[in-house]
Structures are given as structure tokens and as C-alpha cells.
Design a protein that fits this description.
The chain has about 110 residues and is of the alpha+beta class. The protein has one domain. The chain is built from three helices and three strands. A three-stranded mixed sheet has the order 1-3-2, sandwiched between helices. Helix 2 links the parallel strand 2 and strand 3.
Length: about 110
């Protein structure tokens, strides 16, 4: 399978969605091809890069939905093989447990 061509310009006319009424179902229906776990890879070519994005999350569902609704189209337009991992932050958790969570996320991404 050929690589995505480097020449040319990737269009930057992304319409940012600031809709505060976004739901998870809307995000999924607007972004076909997103696999369970927040992964996507181009079908027409082999991506030159694999990207993992770790999003720390705590009590801001509306902000997370807006971020995901805008981030998926941008990454898909760049033809990246990517995974988005949302990690929920726990209030009062010991610092080592946070490092352990990130280590597990890192190992998950390497699979």
C-alpha cells in the first residue's frame, strides 16, 4: 500500500464545532470509521506516522466532547494512524498511581 504523499497541502479549512450540546453518539456518527478505543487508520494508504494522544479528563464532559468532535476530523484529514486515550484523573490520588496509569496507557498503545 502506498504512503500518503508528502507533497501538496493538507487543507486547513476545518470547521470547528463549539456546540455545547454534543453527545458521544453524535461524535461517533459524525466520524465514521473510528474503532472502539478511539483508533483510526487510513484505508487508502499506509500512514507515515502513528500518533497517540493522551487526554487527562476530570469532570468536564462538555469540554471533552467539543475537543473530540474537533480533533477526530483534523487527525483524519492528516491521514494519521492514531489512537486517542482519555484518562480520568482521580481527585486525591497519589502521584505514583498517576504514573502507573500512564505506564499502562503507554503499554496499551504499543500493542
Amino acid at each position: 500500500m502506498p504512503f500518503f504523499p508528502i507533497e501538496g497541502r493538507i487543507a486547513n479549512d476545518v470547521d470547528l464545532d463549539h456546540n455545547s450540546n454534543l453527545t458521544e453518539e453524535t461524535i461517533i456518527s459524525d466520524n465514521p470509521g473510528i474503532l472502539a478505543g478511539g483508533s483510526w487508520r487510513p484505508v487508502e494508504c499506509t500512514a507515515r506516522h502513528r500518533v497517540a494522544i493522551v487526554i487527562p479528563y476530570r469532570d468536564r464532559r462538555q469540554h471533552l466532547n467539543i475537543l473530540l468532535a474537533n480533533l477526530h476530523p483534523i487527525l483524519r484529514r492528516q491521514q494519521l494512524d492514531y489512537t486517542i486515550v482519555v484518562v480520568e484523573q482521580v481527585v486525591g490520588a497519589f502521584c505514583q498511581s498517576s504514573l502507573l496509569i500512564y505506564m499502562h496507557v503507554f503499554l496499551y498503545i504499543l500493542r
